[in-house]
Amino acid sequence: MTTVERVQPPPTAIRPKVVARAGLYAVLAANGGVVTVFFFQAGLGSSTLSAIGRLAGLYGALLMAFQLLLVARLPWLDHRIGMDRLTSWHRWVGFGLLWTLLSHAVFIILGYAQPASISFVDELVELATTVEGVLRAVVALTLIIVIGAVSARFARRRLAYETWHFIHLYTYVAVVLAFTHQVAVGTTFTTSSAATAYWWVLWGAALGSVFLGRLVLPVWRNLRHQLRVSAVVPESADVVSIYITGRDLDRLPARAGQFFLWRFLTQDRWWQANPFSLSAAPDGRTLRLTAKTAGDGTAALRHLRVGTRVFAEGPYGAFTTLHRTRPDTLLVAGGVGITPIRALLEELYGHGVLIYRVATDRDAVLLDELRELAAARGAELHVITGPATPDKLAPQELARLVPDVADRDVFVCGPPGMTGAVLRTLRDLGVPKQQIHAERFSLAG
User: Fold this and answer.
1) Which segments constitute the FAD-binding FR-type domain (predicted)?
2) In terms of CB atoms within 10 Å, which end of the chain has fewer, N or C?
3) Distance CA 68, CA 31 (A)
4) Rounded CA gap, 377 and 348, in Å?
5) Are the CB atoms for 431 and 359 separated by under 8 Å?
């Protein structure tokens, strides 16, 4: 095994995550202010209910554009906040968007129905059949309601990922329909040339971000680097490492702890993308992922042929040394969650402690590498085996292994249950929140 010695910069005074989060909040607040100003410039109209509906619709349009930004996978945001957190924010903003648009529809219809003394349903039918763009808005709202329903926790657990993802793609159809509705009947959109220019720029920036982050950048990077499988190495009966080479990999901005969405372009698997972390720090020549068999897709990795073309989206994730705040580090891994932790160990400086939690010694992936690397880096390695209960990483046990844990950055990666338990232990031990960095196993590979 070859390791690359790296000189690490000192911890930054301002945390990158805080800067990115504050930037997103500021962008949303500033645009909310601009939308409010344009709304009042357009006038409230004769109906209070319709005015409330119009304002709700404008805020809904703003939230929809913000939604697109959150899932655009722009590197600057992703590397500072992380795809898992951005996706979580996208989910909660989505529920806010749903209620905002429902309020828009209800108040607008009531505002028109009340003076005409007709029923809510009759007014809805009247608007949909006589006013340009309203029928498109009804279809868009219906799609958003369906997407919101399947995104609820109880439904999400019962749907296959592929089914959920396919339904979720209709969000883009809803966005286009909502935008054309706004262009057709939005009084604020056409009140002034400034308002019209603002909304065109807003939607152009939102859709352009998605186009850039989800299509242009991945395609450009793959055309540039021409990734191929260079070796397939079984690590155990159910674990395999895939080595990947390509052109100019020293220019690929990947860091230890990050992951890619990998597509291996074989006849039966080219359509399937799986998130796997790098299990070794990028050295400018080779990328390595290590995966455990968990289904047909990962089982097929063992049978990949050398030379197979690879399409990789990424790198993604904020689980990197960019966010460290202390010179010394504690790394905690569970199961195959060791893969990004192993890569981080290769890149870290200062004194490190690695705790690897597995059921049995046979479940310890890459253990020989870890021992060699820990010795080379002057780090402590603790392999903890046994059943999940009693908790061998409870506060008392962790404090015994790492007495100065509160003075270290802590990186945690593993199954959700283990990760949650370790995070609770760290809080009980008084480790400051800004020193704790967690990667959920579902994105860790």
Assistant:
1) 222-322
2) N
3) 15
4) 8
5) no
Cα angle vertex 42, ends 41, 46, to 5°? 120
pLDDT higher at 383 or 162? 383
Tokens matching residue 105: 């529809």
Share of the chain above pLDDT 90, in %: 64
Token representation of residue 186: 């939005």
164 and 51 within one domain: yes
Q: Does 124 map to a domain? A: yes
Longest Cα separation, the chain: 81
Total residue length of the chain: 445
Residue where a domain stops, chosen among 197, 221, 245:
221
Count CB atoms within 10 A of the CB of residue 352.
22
Which residues is 241 bridged to in the sheet? 233, 290
- What's the rounded Cα separation, in Å, for the pair 388 and 403? 23
Residue 288 identity = R
Torsion angle of C-alpha atoms 163, 164, 169, 175, degrees rounded to 10: 140
**CATH at 200:** 1.20.120
Least confident of 149-153, 260-264, 385-389, 408-412: 149-153
Range of 440's domain? Answer: 321-444
Q: Pick the closest to residue 60 from 151, 175, 149 (CA basis).
A: 175
